[in-house]
Amino acid sequence: MASLGVNIDHIANVRQARQTVEPDPVTMCLLAELGGADGITVHLREDRRHIQDRDVELLRQTVRSRLNLEMAATGEMQTIALRIKPDMVTLVPERREEVTTEGGLDVAGQIPSLTSMVQTLQGSGIPVSLFVDPELGQLKACQATGARWVELHTGTYAEASWDEQPAELARLTEATAQARALGLRVNAGHGLTYQNVEPVAAIEGMEELNIGHTIVARALAVGLQAAVQEMRTLVQNPRRDPLFGRLN
Ligand code: PXP
Questions:
Q1: Contact 25/12 with Cβ under 8 angstroms?
Q2: Strand partners for 186
Q3: Which of 50, 151, 190, 207 is catalytic?
Q4: 86 Cβ partners below 8 Å, 6+ apart?
Q5: Which atom of ligand 1 is nearest to the CA of 216?
Q6: What is the tens place of the pLDDT at every residue in 133-142?
Q7: 43, 153, 207, 208: which is the annotated catalytic residue?
Q8: What element of type H or E holds 69?
Q9: Which of the residues 41, 145, 157, 165 has the least number of beta carbons within 10 Å of its own beta carbon?
């Protein structure tokens, strides 16, 4: 049975839209864990557009499940990971202009530099996962770096038409088997939703799914009514002295 890693980047997106303190992704992680999250994932991007350094520091102290730090393979991020010591680092490609992670990491095209980073991180006790497209060539390259895990990119499956989806699912299924045959452990994620997650969760050998956007979207759907009710109560029945005497 696959476990669930909850990606909370989009909670930070809402906070950053106002440059304020709420919603606090650190506080929300407690709720995600109460809901059964087996792990928490954050992507500390080079441009700090959502998750901030402070979030990662606090999450390291408060996450009681497992903290997976997604990051680009840069020297700056390696230094942060070695200091924070997350339970896993997932290396992803990163381009400043992208809306979200687009495509998997080209591990085959940068084996020497990735091997060096994988060895440094794993040598300090942090397991490394490489986010790649479900292609045998990339999986072999992942094995060559010494990484223990891969995260298969499910974006193409998620975006496939009704007709194409079975073929994309077959690619993920085959890649999972190939990765395991190479001695790699397998996670997957990106673009998974309440509608398309089940076939991926059922793949033999799939260990963890990292899911973010759809869960945050669903949280709005199931939480908005109660939030409006609470505010309406305050607006319609304000306490007589809500500022506790500070008015005079
Ligand atoms: N896995 C990786 C490597 C990602 O970059 C992302 C998006 O940040 C996810 C999983 C989660 O994707 P989504 O938000 O579409 O569920």
A1: yes
A2: 150, 206
A3: 190
A4: 56, 60, 67, 68, 69, 126
A5: 14
A6: 999 999 999 9
A7: 43
A8: strand 67-71
A9: 165
pTM (whole model) above 0.90: yes
Buried b (16+ CB within 10 A) or exposed e, 59-81: beeebebbbbbbbbbeeebbebb
pLDDT exceeds cutoff 80 at 245 = no
**The token pair that represents 220 in the structure block:** 């709005």
**CA of 59 relative to ligand 1 center, distance in Å:** 18
Tell me how far the alpha carbon of residue 43 lies from the centroid of ligand 1, in angstroms: 9
User: Taken in order 140, 128, 26, 209, is the CA torsion positive or negative?
Assistant: positive
Q: Residue-wise over 100-125: b if at least 16 C-beta within 10 A, else e? A: ebebbbebbeebeebbebbeebbeee
Residue 105 has pLDDT above 70, yes or no: yes
Structure tokens at 109: 């095209």
Tokens (6 digits) for 166: 């079975």
Task: Please report the domains of the chain, with CATH numbers, ordered by start residue.
Answer: 3-236 (3.20.20.70)
Instruction: Report how far residue 188's alpha carbon sits from residue 117's, in angstroms, rounded to the nearest whole number.
Output: 21
Using an 8 Å Cβ cutoff, are 63 and 29 in contact? yes
Question: What sign for the dihedral angle of Cα 50, 53, 54, 57?
Answer: positive
